[in-house]
Amino acid sequence: MAPSAASHHRSHSLLLLQKLLNLRDKASPLTLILDTLEQPAQPLLNEFMTRAKISKTKIIFISLSTLRKPPLADVFIRGRHKSLQQLATEIIPHVTPSPSSPNQKNLLILDTTHPLLSPPSHLPPFLQSIIPPSTTSCLLVYHTSIPPLTHHHQQKNPYSPTPLQILTHLSTSILTLHPLPHVLASKAAQDKSLPEPAFGLHESREGVLLSLRSPTSPSGVVINMELRRKSGRVVQEKFILYQPADTTPQQTPQQIKGIGALTLLTDHPAFSTTTTAEEEEMMEATFNLGLTEKQRRDREGVVLPYFDAQTDVGGGGEGGRILYDMGREDDFDEEEDEI
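User: That's the sequence. What structure does it adopt?
Assistant: Structure tokens below.
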């Protein structure tokens, strides 16, 4: 039996994200990760590093906000209070292919990009110098909760692109992260035609920032993937990443190896729209002319009004006359009867 279109789309979308996370076939040389205070990028970075470790990819972590070296990182470079030129001087020797291992793959991670965006026009040549073609994949983390700084160059030219616009233009894939409880709460509000709730800084409330999460709330990271092909076509899909320690709907062999489980957002019970075969056939047409057996029996048993008036009485051509018996509730009007 041939797979359905929905099943093929599901398998194809999961395969694209798997290739991106596994750094296979040069899926994305530059990946931009957009996170928030409510959903940091750490779970996704751990997933990238875990898969890179399994494939024996060299992990180079550039620390601009991280204090301690991640356990899975091979090289840890502290980048605080350093210029782009100084950073490039330290990074290039680690990503340059050596004669002993010319095909060594590298994963370059920058835990935040805000200290490097002053001015933003210097970022493209810096990235070009530290990302050798075909051997290195780079992950850039951009915190959307931090307001962008207005540089002197932008004050002179208000039409110059913002740092986020520059990063979005350079990236070959963009991964936007959201907490699963927030997405489920927004979906529940949409189903009831209620305004979507606001979370975190969007609540515009003074005081301590509190998360919606609780020990009983569902865990997981919603990933909005935007993958840009070489042809210019953009592939967009939403996924849920469950960490190995999270409670997942099904225990998969991948979790035993320390790899998180991936599912489409539409596979979640709150988003699933499963239909039967009869409903799918009815959805293919704009209307349905078929009748069930019960509807056919009920239609045959209906007695039409004025049925006796359809017969020709006495052969005098009086067929079609209207027979009407007045009831007690009818109001007899002599003037209408004369007319």
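The longest strand covers residues 234-242.
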